[in-house]
Task: inverse folding
């Protein structure tokens, strides 16, 4: 078996393991449960915010998804299930009016009843706060006015009765249901509590941190620990077997694994706080310990980005970001192709990802393997390593080396990123004969320079927010993002792609034709080599043998309701 | 406490306050010259929202103006709000973390003094025997190995090792909150300094036990315990006490690594995480607390001198 086939096989095993784990039963009648059902794990960083209106990070999402509920939720297989709504929405034939029937038995953990007025308040508040995920509500007519502060009510949102919510959209949005299922921004919050405890302070104390989810916070010491307990008589039904959840904050990956090994934790991995690469390797190579290691597909793609508006790789040099870069002559195309084909992704993953355990080489375009509209294995022609062809293409494109003189690769410093950058530099030198200077910086500086289109080739990556291709295209590849300097760091602007994405966005993702349209858009990204896609993420977990029901669905940790601890 | 000592302590407290303000001002100016800010994110953040956040934290103002606002807050004991963890007030956070660090630091000082002096006294009274050689060798090893290496070794031994050997019955529970979680990090932090104290105590004791008054004590037929502990050790302590100031400073700064490795929610860990996450407000606050802490620790050591040696007087 060659190294690449080993990795492919490993990838297949990963997917199978993830699917099998996700589809597994949530409980078995014959299980002998431990007397103490306290689930413990550690995380590196504290929450950024546990207010659904402000949530940003993976850790925030872990808390929000257990303490609050939205109209819909993802199950462990990333399938959308009704939560606060009784069923999927009724959508008008023109796709612009969505009617949600709400559950009548829904209450907050303090006993306050939840009606449509609470949803209107919560969504309006999220838009007024206008933080990172407020955009999930932007499809509603008038939402952007609330974000801008020019309106206090969402014009397109109404509550005809206490248990019905009607949203009128600006345009049909097939992706909106997926956005509504994401455990951020659209959760219902208790107006009475927020008003009484204070808009900025209600999340500070467990007594005022009131949600409607299956768990409630019982203690919080910032940067030290958080504790949770199931809500008694939860309106949603069974909260599972766990009686308490304890989260330590601030332990690095090595300490978390040590504590796991001494029985102090049930799992290492939740809330994006996975074990380090060295420990993952140690576990993988140990025949007994390897049984505790699960490696799940992770929704992240890492790539090299090329500047499309200036520098040697530009599609249309000198164009203003946001204006079309489409150019039949495309003077940078062969350079982008050569630089992509000169990268042996197997070697890169071997070096940068603990022998390809913590990532998989990417050969199928930007959308991560395992997620909707993934283009398919080996569909990215220019991701296939071919040193000879790359060198020939490069020599034709830049015969005297003048185009890449002084070329800088920009990245933000971290142990992993430095390994990647160093390997890329070595491969470009070896396979193209090009000297690329590595320029590390802190993350905010890289973000600022990338968004300002000051970088020529640079580290690029995207962690999926929700499993819908719209999340990729609308954030990373459409013209308007290049214009406002948010996503689309490359400045790539192809009106034809915008049209395809816009049309696909309007249709339900359940329609195979919609996926085909997104695939077509992916193909355009691949052909134009907007990214030299490097690898897809994985999520390693260590789980004690007596733990059942933990796992990762590619984007989020499995819900705590399904977790139980067996006698041990 | 004599009037002179009181005046001395008051003067030092004023100086400590001044030093803390100067240190924090330098840090304030320094961090505000760094590029980027804690709010910069890979996730899409509406420019208006980013502007509102910058305004909320006064980061949109020129830094001299921010500095004045910060000084105003400091005068009221308010060090502001975390830039990264929304809604987390810094003063109560750092006060809690200070308590944790002081607890760990005091435990480390106990380790340093008890282990160091015991080894030093043993080596001195059993000079040129296997006890002396063993204690001296242990001391050399002790101060040759930095505290973070001790930390890793102790974690390996007490967490993984003990757990495996005892079939899960005995092991170090990494973290903080239980009294049994204090000794191991305290040892990791205190051992290198204990080695220094041991060497110093040995040298000092060797000098003192040859003094006439000690010989007289032996001649009077006093017990070994009384001669060593009451007559010799007390005088031998003075040179040891002189290094306690820098030693405590070392323990305080050393806690940065130890707290991080053991997941102890103290000032040391905050020091690292706040810098890595660019939480400027906390960085400034941590430096302020550290400056005050080091100053206070040295003041306490200085106030111990007159107790150990009545010949030392302040204010005359």
Result:
């Amino acid at each position: 078996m060659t190294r690449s086939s080993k990795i492919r096989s490993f990838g297949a095993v990963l997917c199978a393991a993830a699917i099998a784990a996700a589809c597994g039963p949530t409980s078995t009648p014959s299980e002998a449960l431990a007397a103490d059902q306290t689930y413990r794990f550690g995380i590196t960083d504290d929450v950024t915010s546990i207010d659904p209106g402000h949530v940003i990070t993976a850790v925030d999402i872990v808390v929000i998804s257990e303490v609050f509920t939205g109209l819909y939720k993802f199950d462990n297989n990333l399938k959308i299930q009704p939560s606060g709504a009784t069923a999927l929405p009724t959508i008008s034939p023109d796709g612009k009016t969505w009617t949600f029937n709400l559950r009548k038995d829904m209450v907050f953990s303090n006993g306050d009843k939840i009606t449509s007025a609470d949803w209107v308040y919560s969504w309006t508040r999220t838009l007024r706060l206008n933080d990172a995920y407020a955009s999930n509500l932007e499809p509603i007519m008038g939402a952007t006015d609330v974000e801008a502060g020019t309106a206090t009510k969402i014009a397109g949102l109404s509550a005809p009765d206490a248990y019905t919510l009607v949203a009128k959209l600006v345009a049909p949005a097939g992706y909106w249901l997926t956005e509504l299922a994401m455990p951020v921004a659209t959760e219902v919050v208790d107006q009475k509590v927020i008003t009484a405890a204070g808009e900025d302070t209600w999340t500070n104390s467990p007594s005022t941190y009131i949600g409607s989810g299956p768990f409630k916070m019982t203690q919080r010491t910032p940067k030290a620990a958080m504790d949770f307990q199931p809500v008694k008589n939860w309106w949603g039904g069974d909260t599972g077997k766990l009686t308490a959840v304890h989260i330590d904050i601030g332990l690095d990956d090595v300490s978390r694994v040590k504590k796991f090994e001494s029985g102090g934790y049930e799992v290492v991995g939740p809330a994006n706080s996975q074990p380090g690469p060295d420990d993952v390797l140690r576990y993988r190579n140990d025949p007994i310990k390897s049984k505790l290691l699960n490696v799940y597909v992770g929704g992240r793609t890492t790539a090299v980005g090329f500047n499309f508006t200036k520098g040697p790789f530009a599609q249309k040099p000198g164009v203003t970001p946001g204006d079309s870069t489409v150019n039949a002559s495309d003077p940078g195309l062969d350079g982008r192709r050569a630089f992509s084909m000169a990268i042996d992704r197997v070697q890169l993953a071997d070096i940068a990802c603990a022998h390809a355990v913590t990532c998989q080489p990417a050969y199928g375009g930007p959308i991560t393997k395992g997620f909707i509209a993934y283009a398919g294995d080996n569909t990215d022609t220019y991701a296939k390593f071919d040193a000879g062809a790359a060198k020939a293409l490069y020599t034709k494109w830049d015969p005297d080396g003048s185009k890449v003189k002084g070329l800088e690769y920009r990245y933000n410093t971290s142990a992993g990123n430095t390994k990647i950058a160093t390997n890329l530099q070595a491969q470009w030198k070896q396979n193209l004969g090009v000297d690329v200077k590595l320029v590390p910086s802190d993350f905010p500086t890289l973000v600022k320079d990338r968004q300002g289109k000051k970088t020529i080739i640079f580290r690029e990556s995207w962690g999926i927010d929700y499993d819908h291709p719209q999340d990729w295209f609308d954030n990373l590849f459409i013209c308007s993002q290049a214009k406002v300097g948010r996503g689309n760091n490359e400045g790539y602007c192809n009106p034809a792609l915008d049209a395809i994405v816009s049309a696909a966005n309007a249709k339900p993702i359940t329609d195979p034709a919609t996926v085909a349209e997104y695939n077509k858009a992916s193909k355009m990204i691949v052909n134009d080599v907007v990214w030299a896609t490097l690898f897809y993420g994985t999520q390693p977990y260590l789980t004690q043998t007596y733990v059942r029901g933990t796992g990762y669905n590619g984007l989020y940790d499995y819900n705590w309701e399904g977790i139980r601890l067996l006698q041990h | 406490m004599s009037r002179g000592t009181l005046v001395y302590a008051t003067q030092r407290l004023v100086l400590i306050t001044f030093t803390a303000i100067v240190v924090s001002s330098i840090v304030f100016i320094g961090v505000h010259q760094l590029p980027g800010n804690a709010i910069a994110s890979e996730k899409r953040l509406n420019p208006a929202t980013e502007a509102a956040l910058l305004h909320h934290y006064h980061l949109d103002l020129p830094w001299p103006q921010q500095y004045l606002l910060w000084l105003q807050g400091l005068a009221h004991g308010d060090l502001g709000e975390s830039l990264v963890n929304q809604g987390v007030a810094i003063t109560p956070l750092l006060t809690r973390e200070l308590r944790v660090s002081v607890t760990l630091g005091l435990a480390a000082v106990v380790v340093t003094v008890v282990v160091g002096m015991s080894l030093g006294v043993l080596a001195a009274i059993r000079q040129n025997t296997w006890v002396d050689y063993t204690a001296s060798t242990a001391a050399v090893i002790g101060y040759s190995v930095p505290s973070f290496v001790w930390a890793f070794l102790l974690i390996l031994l007490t967490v993984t090792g003990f757990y495996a050997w005892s079939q899960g019955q005995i092991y170090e529970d990494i973290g903080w909150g239980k009294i049994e979680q204090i000794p191991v990090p305290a040892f990791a932090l205190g051992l290198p300094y204990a080695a220094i104290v041991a060497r110093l105590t040995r040298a000092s004791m060797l000098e003192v036990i040859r003094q006439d008054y000690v010989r007289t004590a032996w001649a009077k037929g006093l017990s070994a315990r009384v001669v060593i502990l009451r007559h010799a050790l007390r005088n031998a302590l003075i040179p040891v006490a002189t290094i306690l100031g820098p030693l405590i400073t070392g323990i305080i700064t050393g806690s940065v690594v130890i707290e991080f490795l053991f997941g102890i929610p103290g000032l040391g860990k905050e020091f690292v995480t706040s810098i890595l996450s660019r939480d400027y407000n906390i960085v400034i606050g941590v430096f302020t607390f550290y400056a005050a802490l080091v100053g206070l620790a040295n003041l306490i050591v200085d106030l111990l001198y007159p107790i150990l040696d009545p010949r030392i007087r302040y204010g005359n």
Observations:
- Residues 224-262 of chain B form the longest helix (39 residues).
